[in-house]
Design goal:
The protein has 257 residues and is mainly alpha-helical. The chain contains 14 helices and no strands. The two termini are 26 Å apart.
Length: 257
Amino acid sequence: MASKWLGKIGVILVAAVISNGCALIPDVGGDNKLSNAERAVLNMQMGTRYLEMGMWDVAKEKLETALDLDSSNADIHNAMGIFYEQIKEYDKAADRYEAAVSKAPDNYNIKSNYGRFLCDRGDYKKGMAVLQQSLDAPMNNRQWYALTGMGVCLVKQNDLSHGEDYFRQALQIEPDYPPALLEMQKISYENRQYMSARAFLERYLAVGKHTPETLWLAFQTERSLGNGKMADEYGQQLVTTFPASKEAQQIKNVIGK
């Protein structure tokens, strides 16, 4: 049950980068009134927003400009790591994440992200260690990030039971955290706890939007519960909304269309 955690929380990671800088671009009356460090943050903000929209070329341009302006800013390195990860240049992503951690060793958000990346690349031991460092950071008031990352890392090693423990801990702290809710939907389905899977989907949809994966899981869950009409509705929604997804093809194979 390989997780696509990055795909589900990429926007959240980008938002975290922006929140670590400025929430809004200030009205300063022109770049000439800004320091290089301030201009770097603005370029990082723009770059991460373009990244969120999938505009890779302009995102790269803005993030590289930010890095040129202030190479000491760990958040910029982290944002560059996210960019390279999204375009599957994993060696470059690793370099940027490592630079981010070296420049801000006490930044628990960056460590949570780096640990999650390591687990996604199969370096489970190091990933769990970095995530544990983030979790143990005295100032970490967003422990659900690290807990969810640790849960995903365990699930990737086929340890669903202990992974579930971490997801539940994350949801005890932040009940509406979408990635943890999605992982619990998947685990519930794998454990044939179909009513629980439905309930976690409902909680997820209260704070997030359907993806091909959530619709595919919902389709399978309702079929397992014997609710053919609802399953067909989910299947049709998947094929209509995400026609190019592999999940849509799976639906077509199942229903023979």
